[in-house]
Design brief:
The chain is mainly β. It has a domain of 240 residues. Strand 13 and strand 14 form a beta hairpin. The chain is globular and about 60 Å long. It starts with 5 loop residues before the first helix and ends with a strand.
């Protein structure tokens, strides 16, 4: 079990603003109290975050959705990129029902929600008053998240090389907890930390928003060669949700060829990855298991295309898991997976030759053009079936329709 830095435990974390969520709609909004109507998509969903882009601005702050009967639901209004959004996390959505809520201000702001606290160039994140993670931009050659705390309060990614924990593997020091990078970009290695490797440096934080339902981090980064020249640029949008039984994070990244064509080469060493705690490793034969959407497990899941992959196993006295879901709008969906029985867990749509396919997976982004990748990460209790990962994928890819209309 990873021990958190004492400063991470002691600090009082302070709220900043509001949120974002899963699906986008653009309704009109009048000055009178609004009605929010949620229409089921035909699939029964569990906790379901939603984002609504508002044509008429509302004051930023805490709100509640009030149903005709039952408990109110925390919601938020926030601005991002010159637009105003309403965000919330619905406790459930029945596929065959339409539900209407009244949207009202919440002057008490009773829900702690997702709190993002700037610490220099880094950001600490808590959910409902409990530590979740820290986004580190100054602690290595690429941005990464460490520590990452699961839904039961224990660390759910490997601590090495940031910390040494008894019983953990000390291999692959470039596999830093939870990250995004690639091993061959214009023939430059951004994956490893060997001599002449590339680096990814943050150039700006466009949005840092806290809120009762969702926190949002939008950043920009330069991918720099060993000579310091820019190879390409990216923009990352990370959304972290205040869900009850899991920890859910959405990660969207757009890579732009801003300085000439950019080729992502065919190598297994990539891309959107994390390192699970060593106790979860399949190789240790203590109950660790890899499962993908196609029913393939463990070594058979390596290099295969799949909509999602789940890596579950023991952490201390508990069984915990991590699922990565690939959105159909993502480049080369369904992605292939560099998921290893020793604990590496990464989505990589470029390593086709390394994964045993006849065709190569190289892709060149023309000068000035972009490609986008979209993932959801779910840190959960229990094994894959217990966590309902297939249903969670439906929630990610088939969110409900949401309308906001003027009240009467």
């Amino acid at each position: 079990m990873t021990v958190l830095p004492s400063t991470f435990q002691r600090r009082a974390w302070t709220a900043i603003a509001l949120t974002s969520a899963f699906s986008l709609v653009t309704p009109a909004l009048a000055d009178a109290p609004a009605r929010v109507t949620v229409r089921g998509s035909g699939v029964d969903l569990g906790e379901t975050p939603v984002v609504v882009a508002l044509k008429k601005d509302l004051p930023a702050g805490a709100y509640v959705l009030k149903p005709g009967a039952g408990d109110s639901i925390a919601a938020n209004v926030f601005t991002d990129g010159g637009k105003t959004y309403l965000g919330t996390v619905l406790p459930c959505v029945e596929g065959s029902r339409n539900v209407t809520y009244t949207l009202e201000r919440d002057p008490t702001n009773a829900s702690e929600g997702v709190v993002l606290e700037r610490q220099g160039t880094n950001i600490r994140v808590s959910i409902s008053g409990r530590p979740f993670t820290e986004y580190l931009t100054d602690a290595g050659p690429k941005p990464y998240y460490f520590p990452v705390i699961g839904p039961t309060g224990v660390a759910i990614t490997r601590a090495y090389p940031m910390q040494k924990v008894q019983g953990e593997d000390n291999d692959h020091p470039h596999q830093r907890s939870f990250w995004f990078t690639h091993g061959n970009v214009n023939d430059i290695d951004f994956w490893s930390e060997t001599p002449n490797h590339g680096s990814i440096k943050e150039t700006g934080k466009k949005t840092v928003v806290s809120g009762p339902a969702v926190g949002v981090i939008r950043t920009t980064d330069d991918w720099l060669g060993p000579d310091g020249k820019t190879v390409c640029e990216d923009e990352r949008i990370v959304r972290i949700y205040d869900t009850k039984d899991t920890r859910v994070l959405d990660f969207d990244i757009t890579i732009t060829a801003s300085n000439g064509p950019v080729t992502f080469g065919d190598t297994k060493e990539g891309m959107f990855g994390l390192r699970v705690p060593s106790s979860m490793d399949v190789n240790r034969k203590k109950g660790g298991k890899i499962t993908n959407s196609e029913g393939q497990t463990d070594d058979d899941a390596w290099g295969k295309p799949a909509s999602w992959v789940d890596y579950a196993g023991p952490v201390g006295s508990e069984t915990l898991g991590i699922a990565i879901l690939n959105h159909p709008d993502s480049f080369r969906y369904p992605t292939t997976w560099h998921v290893r029985t020793y604990g590496l867990f990464a989505a990589n749509p470029f390593g086709w030759h390394d994964f045993g396919r006849a065709e190569r997976g190289d892709h060149t982004i023309p000068d000035g053009q972009s490609i986008t990748f979209r993932y959801r990460v779910i840190f959960h209790k229990g094994e894959t079936a217990q966590a309902g990962i297939p249903a969670a994928f439906e929630s990610y890819t088939k969110p409900p329709d949401v309308d906001v209309t003027p009240g009467e």
